[in-house]
Amino acid sequence: ISFTFCNYGTIFLSSICKLSIWNLIKRMIKMKKILILGSTGSIGTNALELIRNNRKQYQVVGISGNRNIELLKKQIEEFKLTSIYIGSEQDALNLKKEYSFLKEVYFGENGLAELSKNSDYDIILTAVSGAIGIDSTVEAIKREKRIALANKETMVSAGAYINKLLKEYPKAEIVPVDSEHSALFQSLQGFKKENVKKLIITASGGTFRGKDLAYLENVTVEQALKHPNWSMGKKITIDSSTLVNKGLEVIEAHELFNVDYDNIEVIVHPQSIVHSMVEYVDGSIIAQMGVANMKTPILYAFTYPEKEFNSSINFLDLIKTNNLTFEEPDRKTFKGIDLAYRAGKIGGTMPTVFNASNEVAVELFMKKKIKFLDIYRIIEEAMNSHQVLSLNTDNALNIIKEVDKETRKKVREQWEK
Ligand code: NDP
Ligand code: MG
After folding, report:
1. By three-state DSSP, how is residue 313 classified?
2. In this model, does residue 67 exceed pLDDT 80?
3. Could you tell me which of 36, 168, 178, 288 has the fewest CB atoms within 10 Å of its CB?
């Protein structure tokens, strides 16, 4: 009896063992490896929260921060990371000393792109702020990865080049994270592109909705940083207050979905519940709705074409959500939208100039070196003085980088006192 028991016991135990090893292997195969650029930022920390709540499905394989070293350290410890990027060389050296288990510590100008080129991931979330994200997106495309793209400045500054590259590397895919573009992406699923009449991008209207030029003349950084609906990084919050963010999103939509500028409309929807819509030729409008929280679009960029539950997601209570309203944007006061349409329609290197001049203008405004309305003046001047170059060349990326650099330099020379 004891022999039989022993035998059965062994079989039983080894089956459990095999089963759990098998489950482990299955889980590891299914697990998505995620690289997060900008993990210390607003999008980055939201993404980590989603992953924290579903560790069986996701593994973070690398992260990046620029200045917020304390938060980066916490993230390294929590997710036991071995591949990271940090802005300065000194911080990189200190981190290496403190965490001997770190294998790859990148820093400086090419470090983000190196991280994207070398680490082992399935999905890269590009959530750094600004055109600094271009090279890492390029590397991810060359490796034919999925790019969960939050970093809209890349698509605005270098969209023409990125689209050309995507054709060369057809297995690479961009799934947008920007809430409007995630909404458009979702509202386009299952329909034919030729049946689209227009894309309708919603805008909250920003902090200063309803205000006039006289009021805007003396608004402060602190006022501009108070967004009514969304909690975001500082740069994008200022962009929302000027509506340049909506302008950037118009160009981003044009580049992502290949729709003419004349068929992209911006409407103000102060409640930020309808995240954007697609109107079709038969008069139907397909919209995507949800609470104003970036977790849903980030999660969808990880799970597309699937949808997935995550315990950190907030759900919309439709009964409490009455009064969804829509209105025309005030394009005369908030010139950010029209300047973007102009830059986009001109094409070539003009969107690069639009983006670069705005990035510097926002930085100067945050340092209190210029006034709020100077942001528009700076963009307008930069665009007016720019000789547009074609990007229909193999050298497009270099041209974009050169124009980006030159634009920043010119704005600084003139406005940084
Ligand atoms: P944050 O300012 O909150 O975070 C930016 C991240 O990028 C931080 O990790 C920051 O590091 C890092 N970073 C900043 N400058 C550099 C640099 N020069 N080199 C390397 N890393 C750098 O921004 P958000 O999370 O709000 O936005 C990120 C991107 O997502 C932007 O392109 C934005 O337009 C887009 N987006 C954001 C939305 C939001 O809700 N926040 C919505 C839609 C799009 P550190 O903090 O350590 O200095
Ligand atoms: Mg947006």
Report:
1. coil
2. yes
3. 168
Give the Å distances, CA to CA, from 260 to 157, 330, 338, 339, 393.
17, 22, 15, 16, 22
Which residues make up the environment of ion ligand 2, defined by Cβ < 5 Å?
A: 178-180
For residue 20, pLDDT over 80 is answered with no
Q: What is the pLDDT of residues 339-353, one digit of tens each?
A: 999 999 999 999 999
pLDDT classification of 3: cutoffs 50, 70, 90? very low
For ligand 1, atom 39, name the residue with the nearest CA: 232
Query: How many angstroms separate the CA atoms of 25 and 375, rounded?
Result: 54
Is 66 a pocket residue for ligand 1 (Cβ < 6 Å)?
Answer: yes
Report in angstroms the alpha-carbon separations of 42 from 38, 103, 106, 140, 322: 8, 26, 21, 22, 28
* Look-up of token digits 């270099």: 398
User: Is residue 150 within 8 Å of 125, Cβ to Cβ?
Assistant: yes
Burial classification of residue 219, based on how many CB atoms lie within 10 Å of its CB (0-12 exposed, 13-18 middle, 19 or more buried): middle
- Over residues 303-356, the pLDDT tens digits come to 999 999 999 999 999 999 989 999 999 999 999 999 999 999 999 999 999 999
Question: Is the distance from the beta carbon of residue 297 to the nearest atom of ligand 1 less than 6 Å?
Answer: no
Beta bridge partners, 4, equal: none
User: Over 50: is that where the pLDDT of 25 sits?
Assistant: yes
Q: If you measure from the C-alpha of residue 235 to the centroid of ligand 1, how many angstroms do you get, rounded to a whole number?
A: 8
Q: Tell me, what amino acid is at 321?
A: T
Distance 252 CA to ligand 2 centre (A): 10
Ligand closest to 202 (CA) is 2
Residue 224, pLDDT above cutoff 70: yes
Asked whether 118 lines ligand 1 (CB < 6 A), one says no
- Answer yes or no: is the C-beta of 280 below 6 A from any ligand 1 atom: no
What pTM did the predictor assign? 0.94
Amino acid at 265: E
